[in-house]
Write a structure and sequence with these properties.
Elements (H helix, E strand, L loop, with lengths): L1 E2 L10 E4 L13 E2 L2 E2 H14 L4 E6 L3 E8 L2 E9 H14 L11 E10 L2 H7 L4 E2 L5 E13 L2 E8 L16 H11 L16 H12 L6 E5 L10 E4 L6 H8 L6 E4 L5 H11 L6
Parallel strand pairs: 12-13, 12-14
Antiparallel strand pairs: 1-9, 2-8, 3-4, 5-6, 5-11, 6-7, 8-10, 10-11
Helix pairs in contact: 1-2, 6-7
Length: about 290
């Protein structure tokens, strides 16, 4: 991602809302550092992307809402917001993500896309909004939104799902050059088991998607089981976990779909582990 490090116009951001229409939740009465909630939120999202944050946290406490970014797996405290202003920001994010703003006692999840107008006309007129997110006049970043109630109010997490094409190679992910060839060799095998482990925000998902992109050809049938699907990959059958299905049960059913490759997003129970080992020993790459 390339940003103008000095200037950007956060008021130029727009949101493509999933299923629900965007409404204005800011009354205009609450400001922080001269900014109302919509502009403040836009600015913080852009700042998070500029430092390649994987997660954005709004955490409610007794007298404040703390904003933190996770960068390279490490949490960084950014700001401590007044309680009421922080609640306005969280409410706005819930609306953008298509969540129920009247429900504050149950966990909720959703997603949205933040779009950028990067047309030549816009750049020439403002001279301030210089970002590159791909081709076309409208490009953007997908976010997964999760809200959970705590004793002091709602805590909200945003997971950044933006994965530029340039990042989808092992060298860009920080792999030592001597490791790239062996990793790709095993990824191209017709059967076996590859395990990717690491801490939260450590790059597991990006590494998995990078390997899938590398082996994704017309001659292979690839399925993924995810909770939820984070980044859409053309040519790959992606399955999202529901309350009625588990990783293990879906993986067991996939063995009847004649797959070449199965990507299991998480292996936390005995069933999914048994299915993964069985599949890897019966002509599948897991």
């Amino acid at each position: 991602m390339q940003f103008d490090e000095e200037q950007y116009d956060a008021s130029k951001l727009s949101f493509a809302v999933v299923e629900n229409a965007l409404i204005n939740t800011d009354s205009g009465s609450e400001v922080y550092d001269g900014m109302r909630a919509p502009f403040f939120l836009n600015r913080q999202l852009v700042e998070a992307l500029k430092i390649n944050a994987s997660d954005i946290h709004f955490e409610s406490f007794a007298e404040s809402v703390v904003l933190r970014f996770r960068v390279d797996g490490v949490m960084r405290e950014v700001l401590e917001l007044p309680k009421e202003f922080g609640r306005l920001v969280i409410t706005r994010l819930k609306v953008i993500a298509g969540l129920d703003i009247s429900e504050q006692n149950l966990s909720q999840s959703g997603r949205f896309k933040m779009s950028f107008d990067i047309s030549e006309q816009n750049l020439s007129q403002s001279g301030r909004f210089k970002m590159s997110f791909g081709t076309g006049e409208q490009a953007g970043v997908d976010f997964r939104c999760s809200v959970i109630p705590t004793i002091y109010g709602e805590t909200l997490n945003l997971r950044v799902l933006y994965l530029p094409e340039a990042f989808m190679n092992l060298e860009m992910l920080g792999f030592d050059q001597s490791l790239v060839a062996p990793v790709l060799y095993h990824a191209n095998r017709t059967q076996g088991l590859i395990l990717i482990t690491g801490p939260t925000g450590g790059g597991k998902t990006v590494t998995l998607y990078t390997l899938l992109k590398h082996i994704n050809t017309r001659t292979r049938s690839i399925f993924t089981i995810e909770d939820p699907v984070e980044i859409e990959l053309p040519g790959i059958n992606q399955i999202s976990i529901t309350s009625e299905n588990s990783f293990g049960s879906i993986a067991r059913g996939l063995l009847r779909q004649d797959p070449d490759v199965i990507m299991i997003g998480e292996m936390r129970d005995r069933e999914s582990c048994e299915v993964a080992v069985h599949a890897s020993n019966t002509g599948h790459l897991v």
